[in-house]
Specification:
globular; single chain; 6-stranded antiparallel beta sheet; mainly beta
């Protein structure tokens, strides 16, 4: 039987919650500061910053994410209400309006993610990755389809407590061989997710 092939990374995709609970699509709207000058793609990690807005979390081995970006909405400078798969850097918006990201922020969310060796080069791990922590490859996404290129680094499975995600399972459906896996299921580590991190943001 031929298995489907994963051609490249696609970011982090929420699939369900820990313990088999259903992910019902619950999200939180979070403001992006007007003029923020970095693209954020569907499936990228994002984090809260001082002042209450969010930005892309570009960390790889010591992230502090609040969740995963799932699109945004805003009123364009010409007055057109706009929904977008990704946040275009430095987008011009109508005066007196805000930009809101849609964020999967439940700390119990499980995400499916591709395994890469570098950039968008697909790789694999074995079942031994289950239970380890892994680091992130924060590769830039696509402005054509708006999707993230975030993945987990194939050589990173370890006990390292600062790594942002814990591997919960492997994905047999896209396994290129009976013993290797090109996708894994992960959860943001307790203490790494901003809701579980004891250190708060400065109040200004």
């Amino acid at each position: 039987m031929a298995y489907p092939t994963i051609n490249g990374p696609y970011g982090l995709r929420p699939i369900n919650l820990i313990g088999g609970q259903v992910f019902a699509g619950s999200t939180r709207n979070m403001e992006i500061a007007s003029g923020y000058a970095t693209n954020i793609f569907f499936g990228d990690f994002v984090k809260r910053i001082v002042g209450g807005t969010i930005e892309k979390d570009t960390g790889t081995t010591a992230n502090t994410p609040v969740g995963v970006f799932l699109g945004c909405f805003y009123t364009a400078a010409n007055g057109t209400p706009t929904r977008s798969q990704y946040y275009p850097a430095s987008i011009s918006i109508a005066a007196g309006t805000e930009i809101y990201a849609i964020v999967a922020d439940d700390p119990d969310t499980l995400y499916q993610v591709a395994v890469c060796s570098s950039g968008v080069v697909m790789a694999t791990v074995t079942q031994n990755a289950i239970g380890t922590n892994m680091s992130i490859l924060a590769t830039a996404g696509s402005t054509l389809n708006g999707n993230s290129s975030y993945s987990v680094l194939s050589t990173s499975p370890a006990v390292t407590s600062t790594f942002p995600v814990r591997v919960i399972d492997v994905v047999p459906a896209t396994s290129p061989t009976p013993t290797t896996y090109s996708e894994v299921i992960v959860k943001i580590n307790f203490g790494i997710h901003q809701y579980n991190n004891a250190t708060g943001l400065a109040y200004v």
